[in-house]
């Protein structure tokens, strides 16, 4: 027994620490066993708790998928409706352009007709003046 008292004290601390750790593991094991035993159902039970939890999780997942699918369907309908509206606007724009072109052509035609009418009117006035001169030149 030639060990110094400090070494003996350190050895006792290490051994007591190991024993303490073993006790911790044993207590942890016992607690886990008790929790597992509390979760067990009687033999009359139809489904274990894990099956019920899995079933509920599957139901939740299915419900989430249904909601996502409904949201996707709604988005698809809105997109289709927006596409139809956009196509309708493009058609209206084309019709408006065609109408504008037609109106511009009619305006040009009207301006040409007006210019011709003014020319005819000027010619008529000129002929009226000449006829009046002729009438004035006749003896009375």
* Low-confidence runs of at least 5 consecutive residues: none
Oligomer: single chain
The value of Rg in angstroms is 53 Å
Q: How is the biggest beta sheet arranged?
A: none
Shape: rod-shaped
**Into which percent range does the helicity of residues fall?**
over 70%
Class per helix and strand makeup: mainly alpha
Quantity of strands, as a count? 0
Number of helices: 2
> Whole-Å distance between the termini?
175 Å
> Strand content of the residues, in percent?
under 5%
Q: What's the overall average pLDDT, rounded?
A: 83
Q: What pattern of helices and strands is seen along the backbone?
A: HH
Summarize the structure.
With 140 residues, the protein is mainly alpha-helical. Among the domains are: 1-33; 79-140. The protein contains 2 helices and no strands.
Overview of the molecule:
The protein is an all-alpha fold. Among the domains are: 1-33; 79-140. Helices cover 89% and strands 0% of the residues. The protein has 2 helices and no strands. The radius of gyration is 53 Å and the shape is rod-shaped. The termini are far apart.
Write the layout of secondary structure elements.
Elements: H1 5-39, H2 49-137
Key terms for this structure?
140 residues; mainly alpha
